[in-house]
Amino acid sequence: MVNPNLGIVRTVLAFFVFLVVLVSSNGEPASYLRVSGEADGSRRLELASRTLASPEHENVKVTLLGVSHVGDLSFYKSVQERLDAADLVLFEGVGWGDGPPKAGSKKTSGVGELQDSLAGSMGLVFQLKAIRYDRPHFRNSDMSLRAFTDSMSGEKSKPDKKKVDEKGAGKPAKAPRKEKKDLAAQEVMRALSGDSIAFSFVSGTLKIFGKSPKFRGLMKLAMVETLGALGGDVSSLAKAAGPGIEKFMRIVLEKRNAIVIKDLKKILKDKQGHGDVVVFYGAAHMPDIERQLSEEFGFVPAGEKWLPAFGLNPKEAGLSALEVNLVRNMIRTQIGRLKKRVAD
Asked: Using DSSP, how many helices (H) and how many strands (E) does the chain show?
């Protein structure tokens, strides 16, 4: 008999694929994320930690450490050890400042809360609960919340008042040029802030059914199979999801990556003794960051290590061959529909 939990998996799957699109690649080869399989049917999600070196900057090595926002505790322990050993860590976090917001803070996002629920539903750990950011050599390298929301709404951020005053002109800042707001983008921002019925429904569902070991196994399988089925073809899926999602993906990747590159340029120019620099960002960002480092500064791969984020053995999880095939078919059907929308 087919497990009734499959009905719940089917219910949340469409939204689940959307979530994976938000944290996955941008259409380039997913060289920082891979799904490996074993003869016994086990499937494992792995993230790359790739060190780059340049003959033009012999005193600095840059490690691009891709991260999954949910994973095994052992994965995050390995990541923490690598981060603590670095001279400088540039980490992601829109509007974070020196570190991530505390649980229950108004700064927490809908996506973050959903990812936390997702981690719990699979018996895994959420990144922000596992990684310690209170290190003196950790530096936020991301957009301010204001710049991010203005980019989504089509407005230009106002100049920082303090910086205007420091320039001594004493002149009032010019009003930003307003453009027509993208309603689809606003809907995305509502969802990210947690003001979304869909987010609330999925998050609540995951918390309730995540207590079941069988459900945890099904969700792990769905996560791994989704990432495996997507490969690097996520930009087209973002287009299928609508203009708001496509714009969101462009801002998430391109504009935030530009900030990382800007910070790395300063480090390479100043030569402050940061010989071992780690960029700690979602795996989706890494192919583009590596490309820019290669083209602008001559950096090339000098070492690579693959870290297992989490995995699943269907038999040990109590999943039958029928259940495994049903989940895989649901994943392929959902992704196929999104791809068809792009083709049409």
From this structure: 14, 9
